[in-house]
Amino acid sequence: MWDVAVVGGGPAGAAAARLLASWGHSVLVLTREVDRRRGLAESLPPSSRKLLAAIGALAAVEQAGFGRGIGNAVWWGDREAQLEPYGGGARGFQLFRPELDALLQQLAVDAGATVVRGATVTRVAPDGDGSHLHYGTATGARTARARFVLDASGRAGVVGRPVRRYESAFRMQALIGVWQRPGGWRLPDESYTIIETCEDGWAWSIPVAADIRHLVVMVDGTVSQVPRGRTLDATYLTALARSRQLEGLRAGATLLHTWACDASVYSSSAYAGPSHLLVGDAGACIDPLSSFGVKKALASAWVAAIAVHTAMSDAARRAASLDFFAAREREMFLAHLRQSRDYAREAFARHAHPFWGQRAAVVVPDGHDTPDEAGLARAADVQQAFARLRGAAPGPLSAGNLAYDTMPLIRGREIVLEPALRIPGVTSPMRYFAGVDLLRTADIARGGHDVPGLYEAYSHAVAPVPLPAFLHSVSLLVARGLLTMQPRPATPHV
Ligand SMILES: Cc1cc2nc3c(=O)[nH]c(=O)nc-3n(C[C@H](O)[C@H](O)[C@H](O)COP(=O)(O)OP(=O)(O)OC[C@H]3O[C@@H](n4cnc5c(N)ncnc54)[C@H](O)[C@@H]3O)c2cc1C
Predict the structure, then answer these.
(1) Test site for ligand 1: of 29, 31, 116, most ligand atoms within 8 A of the Cβ
(2) 449 C-alpha vs ligand 1 centroid, how far in Å?
(3) What is the CA(174)–ligand 1 centre distance, in A?
(4) How far, in Å, is the centroid of ligand 1 from the Cα of 281?
């Protein structure tokens, strides 16, 4: 009986396995053999470094010799090229995914996980206090038992497929061509990801070596008008000819091979069962346009590992931990869908085609699990309170009507229930806003401080935070009556 069996050794599976093994759990990873001919060139934004560090993989990824990612060159609609370098000289990675996956799997092994490559899981059957996994290898059929199963099988969705919900407006197929150009392309900066919208699709290119680039076209078979050729190469070249920038990269280059894969966007109606979680793309897949798929998979793995570790350490927190994971996956998916819809609205203004029109019209439900911080910051009463706080002479603050509740939070490698505040107009309890601890702010305000004094006391007692974030948090507390601001006593005239 393993503590945890992980189905799939992509970024999500390997990262979760590494964390859980390093925290002392017995972990079995079953993963199919990698097909390098169907390996993608992918781009990881600089913000994925924090997650790579959290799983103890940043140093190894930095030393692996992957390409540096310094930003995007974007042709959105008929606009001129926009160079979008990552701010502050930040660096991401441009890499060939099979190489990243092999590295992350090795790190899982180093942490103590058992990784079986060439193992295809065919069925996961819950049984009492765990699950039976049935899998095939080159030497025959096998079974294993585990207390917890993490389905990290990506689009295959070994456990998750029955609860999958596709976004019909975001159906997409990727047509991928691997090109070689002796001596490279001699672009102003080869390491930019090139992204371009077309009338009824979009295209992008990422280098994996000085002389190799993947040129990829995304289409929606139901609305894009790409005539199907006699071969995949022919269909691909027709689709590529609809782009302007990528088509230009063909000159002097040789097409090594093509392949195609589904890239449709989907989520799940449930991300957790009694003893399984859907991690990474097994639960939800976002629009590849964002280049956040691997980052999202790593984040999902990090929270899944914490949820499973908590559930196995303390039965009383099991349900809350699994719910926490599921709520977070739902929110992440909705936030990404909202962003893709907004990109599509911009593109639709320039390409009046149903490909963009149907994406632009998607209705994204509000998330209920975590408050919409940006929306709260824009609320009229919060803005008014902000203006008063920044006014010439804000008066002293004191605690108003405080209503307490509890909420699950990540502390180290566990999910714990901690006190939080009930904020009028917000459905779920809140502990943090703009990175500021609202509960501690309200507690410190009991001592009676003016705004500068409260800021100083908070920075000293909790942690230094940027002043604008602190003022926004205090504005929220004042606007919703949890803090009151006294009028400043008039200065007597002498
Ligand atoms: C065309 C395209 C371009 C993309 N570009 C980017 C990009 O530039 N940047 C980015 O961050 N993201 C990109 N993504 C998204 C990214 O590829 C995924 O989000 C990411 O791979 C998800 O990781 P994962 O570990 O959840 O799943 P996967 O990477 O899909 O890993 C799943 C693993 O499970 C294994 N598996 C599947 N079935 C079984 C089974 N039955 N038994 C055992 N093992 C199994 C697979 O072999 C694989 O190893 C792109 C996606 C597409 C489709």
Answers:
(1) 31
(2) 52
(3) 13
(4) 7
pLDDT tens, residue by residue, 61-84: 999 999 988 888 888 876 677 888
Phi/psi region, residue 425 (left: phi>0; alpha: psi -120 to 50; beta: rest), is: left
Q: Please state the three-class secondary structure of 197-231 as a single string.
A: EECCEEEEEEEEECCEEEEEEEECCCCCCCCCCCC
Residue range(s) in the chain whose domain bears CATH number 3.50.50.60: 2-227+263-347
Nearest CA to ligand 1 atom 4: 288
Please list the residue range(s) of the chain that carry CATH number 3.30.390. 373-485
- The rounded distance, in Å, linking the Cα atoms of 5 and 1 is 9
Mutation to probe ligand 1, out of 19, 29, 30, 32 (largest number of atoms < 8 A from CB)? 32
- Closest residue by Cα to atom 51, ligand 1, is 288
Task: Give the atom of ligand 1 at the shortest distance from the alpha carbon of 293.
Answer: 19
Strand 67-69 with 92-96, pairing: antiparallel
Cα(195) to centroid(ligand 1), Å: 20
User: For 94-118, b where at least 16 C-beta lie within 10 A, e where not — what string?
Assistant: bbbbebbbebbbebbeebbbbbeee
Domain 2-227+263-347 falls under CATH 3.50.50.60: yes
Indicate the class that CATH gives domain 373-485. alpha beta
Q: What is the 10 CA–ligand 1 centroid distance (Å)?
A: 6
Token readout for 272 is 């957790």
Residue labelled with tokens 């601890």:
437
Question: How many CB atoms are located within 10 Å of the residue 456 CB?
Answer: 12
Segment 118-158, tens digit of pLDDT: 999 999 999 888 999 999 999 999 999 999 999 999 999 99
